Amino acid sequence: MENEMERTSDKMEKIGMKSSKRFILVIIVIAAILAVVLGLMFYQNQGYTGKTESITIGYSPFEQTALFWIAKDQHFFEANGLNVTLRKYDSGVGSLDGMLNGEADIAVGVTEFPTAWRILQKERIRIIGGIAKTEQIYLVGRKDRGIEYISDLKGKRVGTTLRTISHFYLGRFLELHGMNMKDITLVELKTPAEWVDAVANGDIDAVATSQPYVNSAKERLGDNAVIWPAQGGQLLFGLIVSTDEWVTKHPEPVTRLLKSLAQAEEYIIHNPAEAKVIVQKRLNMDSAYIETIWSQDQFSLSLDQSLILAMEDEARWMINNNLTDETNIPDFLDYIGEDGLKEVKPEAVDIVRQKT
Questions:
Q1: CATH number, domain 53-132+235-350, options 3.40.50.2300, 3.30.565.10, 3.20.20.150, 3.40.190.10
Q2: What is the architecture, at CATH level 2, of domain 137-229?
Q3: Predicted local distance difference test score (pLDDT) of residue 184
Q4: SS3 155
C-alpha cells in the first residue's frame, strides 16, 4: 500500500511538473503575442493629432517600393495625419516626370539614374530619402539569335527603356565586357508589356530590364533564354523625390511621410513573414521571388554618401555618352534634403558636407 501511494505521489508530481511547464510555455507564448500587439499599437498610436494633409504619391510597381506598401497596408500614413492618393506609372521615369508635371507631389521608388538626368536638366529636385537598395536589372537574350556569350551581343538588337536605370546598366555592362552602346542596335521599349513581348516574340534579340519582368521573359522563352545580371553587385537606390518648392512649403508632411516609412521598416523587422505577404500581394509577385529579394535587397530608410557617388558616376556616363548637353557634374548635395530624415531617423543619414 505504501509503495502504491509513493508511485501515485510520483505520478502526481510528474503531472504537476508537466502542467507547470505547459503553463510556463503558455505564459511565454502569450507574452510574445502581447509584445507584438503592443509594438504594433505603439507604432500606430504615435499618431499626429493635428490637421490631416492630403498628398498625391506617384509610384511604379517595383520591389523598391516595399516600405511604402507596408506603410499603406498598416495605415501608418493615416496614423500620421496623411491622406494619401496614389498615382501609378509604368516606370520610375514615368513617376518622376509625372511629379515634375504636377500630377503628383512626391515620387517614391524612382531610382537615382533618372533623378540625376533630371538634375542635369536643371530641374529643382529634392531627394528627401532612400527607401531601398536593390539588385534587379538583368539582360535576357535569345539563344536562337546566336547569343550564348556576352560578346555575342555585338551587332544585336537590344531593347530597354531610355533614361531608366536599365539603360545605364546596359551601357555599363557592355563597357565592362569590352563593348559600348555603339556596338549594338539600341531599341527603345516603353511599356512593361513591350519589355517582355519584344524579346519573347523575337522583335529584338535581347532586353535589359528589371524584375519581375525578367522572370516573365524567361518563362516565355524557356530553354531559349540566356540571362546575365547587369548590375555586377552594385545596388541601385529607390528614392523619395519631390520638387524643391513642394518640400520647402510642406516640411511637416515630409516628416510625417518619413515617420510612416520608418514605422514600416520597424514592421518588417518585427513581422517579416507578414511583410512579405503584403509586398507579394501588392506587387503581384510569387512567393519564391519574394523570398529571393528579401535576402538580397535592403528595405530601409537611408541617405548616405554612396548615393552621391553613384549619381556622380552615372552623370559622368551620361556626359560621356552624349545624353546631356551638360559637361560638368553637378554638386548633388545641393539636391539632398536630409532634415526630415534626420528628425525621424538620424542614424540613417550619413551625408558629408563641407563646413563653411
A1: 3.40.190.10
A2: 3-Layer(aba) Sandwich (3.40)
A3: 98
A4: coil
